[in-house]
């Protein structure tokens, strides 16, 4: 029998197929086919470059094995095998050697990381449509959400699946396959977009979804999407995402923090709550950062949501004559409200948007929770373990 070894694997149920890990791997140890993203056991040197960039924590999986799983085995998985009982696993079952353990600990720093779905979330459908078998959707609408004068072009895109099933829960994403090839001559990889409509669709029961897409200068897919016209056909993969989901428990309270297009899943959460509102339901608070009101997607419609359903904290960093304010600044201003929510076991926390926002938000949470005697790291780990802490940054 071979000496047992620790093998790096990816959880295909949680992976959202954004391929960021593959792009971050400096030695080409990660690859994909039309279905899964996998790690070459003989190539991976545990450098951990892929761990902090993964938006879901699906990359952070390890198994002690007598014989490493082959790529063919990993490509065939729809879920990760459990750790098998192994005689003589010895040292390999122990933690990594000191150097590798330190790298892993470093990679785990920050707000993201492995997470669990809320206990009352519905079971999501995942990866129904793949790179080799995408579904075709038709563009039903493409509306600019930001002012023509604003420095960002963010669009509300409606896609219709023409009766083909696309069962997506709030918080899930889909992949869009931009046409054409990259510089390497290979087809462009799909880019992920959060679904901004609730599970019954943008228009209830019409089999459509909406997205909130920002045009990136020189970006392949965002320009393709932002330039789509009504009637255009688009190739879609997904749905993806098994943890950044909404609790079904109507009494759950949601604390949502976002910047820019990070508002997409929170629009879906809010619409779901509005469509299923029941007396005595849990409240929601939204901290939303943008440069100015005209660059904050859904500013008008959000303002119309009654504050008994959603408390809105819109935060602007570029208002002429006003001091710059970011979401983390406002969290500190509203420390009492946040502390009260942090101390309530019905509260679920969601953070979504640009990766750069994580650090500031984390610092604000440390300050607020510790001011009321709750050590943040302990609290955050407990929240994660209970499926009540979710970060999706890109
Ligand atoms: P790419 O072509 O991949 O380029 C990447 C970056 O390089 C861009 O910022 C682009 O500006 C820059 N770049 C490329 N070429 C040039 C050039 N010639 N000159 C200067 N700069 C250049 N995005 C959304 O808008 N909405 C969402 O809801 C959303 N949800 C996401 C959810 C997840 C889980 C993840 C992982 C990502 C999400 N994204 C979302 C980001 C999205 O997937 C894409 O990364 C984004 O649209 C950029 O893709 P692109 O093909 O346009 O850019």
Commentary on this structure:
The protein folds into 3 domains: 5-111, Alpha-Beta Plaits (2-Layer Sandwich), CATH 3.30.70.20; 135-240, Beta Barrel (Elongation Factor Tu (Ef-tu), domain 3); 253-393, Rossmann fold, CATH 3.40.50.80. 23% of the residues lie in helices and 23% in strands. It has 11 helices and 15 strands. Helix 8 (327-333) runs parallel beside helix 10. The chain is globular and about 65 Å long. The model has no long low-confidence stretch (mean pLDDT 93). The chain binds flavin-adenine dinucleotide. Flavin-adenine dinucleotide (FAD) binds next to strand 8, strand 9 and helix 5.
User: Percent of residues in beta strands?
Assistant: 15-25%
Number of strands: 15
- Strand order of the main beta sheet, please? 8-7-10-5-6-9
The largest β sheet comes out as:
6 strands, antiparallel
Order of helices and strands: EHEEEHHHEEEEEHEEHEHEHHEHHE
Ions, cofactors, ligands: which are bound?
flavin-adenine dinucleotide
Text of the CATH class of the largest domain: Alpha Beta
CATH architecture of the largest domain: 3-Layer(aba) Sandwich
Work out the oligomeric state of the chains in this entry: single chain
**Mean pLDDT level:** 93
What is the radius of gyration? 21 Å
Poorly predicted segments? none
Q: Distance between termini?
A: 43 Å
Helix content: 10-25%
């Amino acid at each position: 029998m071979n000496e047992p070894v620790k093998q790096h694997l990816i959880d295909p149920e949680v992976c959202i197929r954004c391929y960021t890990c593959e792009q971050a791997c400096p030695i080409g140890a990660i690859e994909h086919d039309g279905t899964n993203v996998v790690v070459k056991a003989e190539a991976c040197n545990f450098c951990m470059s892929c761990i902090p960039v993964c938006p879901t924590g699906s990359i952070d999986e390890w198994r002690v094995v007598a014989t490493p799983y082959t790529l063919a085995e990993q490509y065939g998985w729809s879920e990760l095998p459990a750790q098998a009982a192994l005689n003589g696993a010895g040292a390999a079952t122990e933690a990594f050697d000191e150097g590798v353990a330190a790298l892993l600990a470093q990679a785990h720093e920050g707000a993201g990381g492995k997470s669990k779905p809320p206990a009352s979330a519905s079971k999501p459908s995942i990866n129904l449509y793949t790179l080799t078998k995408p579904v075709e959707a038709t563009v039903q609408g493409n509306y600019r959400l930001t002012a023509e004068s604003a420095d960002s072009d963010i669009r509300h895109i409606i896609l219709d699946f023409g009766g083909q099933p696309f069962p997506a829960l709030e918080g899930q994403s889909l992949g869009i396959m931009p046409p054409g090839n990259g510089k390497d001559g290979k087809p462009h990889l799909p880019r992920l977009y959060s679904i901004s409509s609730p599970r019954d669709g943008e228009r209830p029961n019409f089999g459509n979804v909406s997205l909130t897409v920002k045009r990136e200068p020189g970006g392949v897919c965002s320009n393709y999407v932002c330039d789509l016209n009504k009637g255009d056909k688009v190739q879609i993969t997904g749905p993806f995402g098994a943890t950044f989901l909404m609790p079904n428990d109507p009494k759950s309270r949601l604390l949502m923090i976002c910047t820019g297009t990070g508002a997409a899943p929170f629009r879906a959460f809010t619409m779901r709550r509005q469509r299923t509102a029941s007396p005595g339901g849990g409240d929601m608070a939204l901290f939303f950062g943008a440069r100015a009101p005209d660059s904050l997607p859904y500013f008008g419609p959000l303002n119309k949501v009654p504050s008994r359903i959603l408390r809105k904290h819109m935060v602007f960093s570029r208002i002429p004559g006003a001091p710059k304010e970011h979401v983390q600044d406002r969290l500190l201003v509203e420390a009492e409200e946040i502390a009260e929510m942090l101390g309530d076991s019905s509260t679920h926390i969601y953070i979504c948007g640009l990766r750069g926002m994580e650090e500031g938000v984390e610092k604000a949470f440390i300050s607020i929770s510790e001011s009321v005697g709750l050590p943040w790291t302990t609290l955050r780990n407990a929240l994660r373990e209970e499926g009540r802490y979710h970060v999706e940054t890109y």
